[in-house]
Amino acid sequence: MADAAPPSKSRDLDKLLLRPGNLVGPTFDPGVQVFFLSVLIFEGFGYFQLRDDLQEYARVLVVGAGGLGCELLKDLALSGFKNLEVIDMDRIEVTNLNRQFLFRLEDVGKPKAEVAAKRVMERVSGVNIVPHFCRIEDKDIEFYNDFNIIALGLDSIEARSYINAVACSFLEYDSDDNPREETMKPMVDGGTEGFKGHARVIVPGVTPCFECTIWLFPPQVKFPLCTLAETPRNAAHCIEYAHLIKWDEVHSGQAFDPDNPDHMKWVYDEAVKRAELFGIPGVTYSLTQGVVKNIIPAIASTNAIISAACTLETLKIASGCSKTLSNYLTYNGVEGLHTKVTEFVKDKDCLVCGPGVLIELDTTVTLKKFIDMLEEDPRVLMTKASITYHGKNLYMQAPPVLEEMTRSNLELPLYDLMDKIPKDVLHATGTINKDDKKSSGLRKLRVVFKGIDGVADMDMAGGA
Ligand SMILES: [Zn+2]
């Protein structure tokens, strides 16, 4: 071919997808026909045309449209993924513009998810991105089940924990407590802090989940309360005084919400007063946000590197063109450059990716009593629990219309609500109160009813 045709858009991808290799996945067949990781993604097996079909069918959710999320969306689109959705609750702020390159000055105040989706679609032909401007908890669990892969570009442990719990909740175990492949929801998680970052692959039931290795996130450094109360020496001390001590004194019972601008402003004003009292300079609103939310400056290049690693892992999961990272990559660009991959192991007793919390009940226990029990159970510690059973709402705390619709179930025996099946899985979402911290959470609960005879094995899935 002597034609000077422009290079194919998929030129670089083809190097990964059209050639054999020693590191390819067990089912990878190089060529235009690429075996899609169908075990994970579709039930049954199937071949798909890579450039035409494969990425058409792979549905990827990007969680977060901030520094990492913007990069992820752009990288995934450029890697040929065509069906992307993005969820983010934030609006664009002026301070985002130095690194969140999809946003312009005129976008300030608009939802990040919407602008990010629009900009990438304008620049990359053929990609469709659906934005969701809401909190991750606002979507019901089934929303997340719709995606083949979930890519996380988040800056908070709580949000990661939540999505991890949701993805792990889809995981089912067979009667020998082996995870079922077709119920695994792979996640790729990126994170950055200044010049440091990580990229990891989580395949629930195979790799450790986020919760298995929660110890990787050391507890945040806290100042001694006596320092805050008596001898503040810097601006951060004044801010933490307002945040940790003064707030509770004044707002008895009302939890501080770092995402509520009124709350943040109140803490800032109090910190300024405190700083004036002790002659301490340097309290600003952005420092207040930084200290209270533990924000560390974000670096565009770190986001770009971590996002590239995450996108490559997503492509590997979708195509099987190479083994995935096993399973945790750290990047450190503080002095020179250092990267390393560590293979962490699963916590076999993990409450989130394991088979679930086993709860034994009498057949007479009502749904209301069950919800009360979840508050007391040290393995759950959940208040205001909403309960779903195979996607059916048994009781919902919110919105009011659903609460009203499901309220009458509260007085019914759970056994009846679970179709008199002696052993099955429920999902509870609510507020988890652990170590004096409240966070949104989800727990998989394996309920076994006592005193039901004649049922040897209630593994209902059956089949080949
Ligand atoms: Zn786990």
TrEMBL record:
This protein's pathway: Protein modification; protein neddylation
Single Gene Ontology MF annotation = NEDD8 activating enzyme activity
Q: Which Gene3D superfamilies match?
A: NAD(P)-binding Rossmann-like Domain, Ubiquitin activating enzymes (Uba3). Chain: B, domain 2, Ubiquitin-like 2 activating enzyme e1b. Chain: B, domain 3
TM helices/strands, residue ranges: none
Any Gene Ontology CC annotation: nucleus
Q: Which residues form the active site?
A: C226 (glycyl thioester intermediate)
Keyword Lipoprotein among UniProt keywords: no
Q: Which terms does the UniProt entry file under GO BP?
A: protein neddylation
Arranged from A to Z, the UniProt key words for this protein are: ATP-binding, Ligase, Nucleotide-binding, Ubl conjugation pathway
Q: What class of enzyme is it?
A: ligase
> What's its catalytic activity?
ATP + [NEDD8 protein] + [E1 NEDD8-activating enzyme]-L-cysteine = AMP + diphosphate + [E1 NEDD8-activating enzyme]-S-[NEDD8 protein]-yl-L-cysteine
Q: Does the keyword RNA-binding apply?
A: no
Domain named E2 binding: residues: 359-450
As recorded in UniProt, its EC number(s) are 6.2.1.64
Q: What does this protein do?
A: Catalytic subunit of the dimeric E1 enzyme, which activates NEDD8.
Q: Which family does it belong to?
A: Belongs to the ubiquitin-activating E1 family. UBA3 subfamily.
Give the protein name, as stated in the record: NEDD8-activating enzyme E1 catalytic subunit
Q: Report the source organism.
A: Gossypium hirsutum
Provide the taxonomic classification: Eukaryota, Viridiplantae, Streptophyta, Embryophyta, Tracheophyta
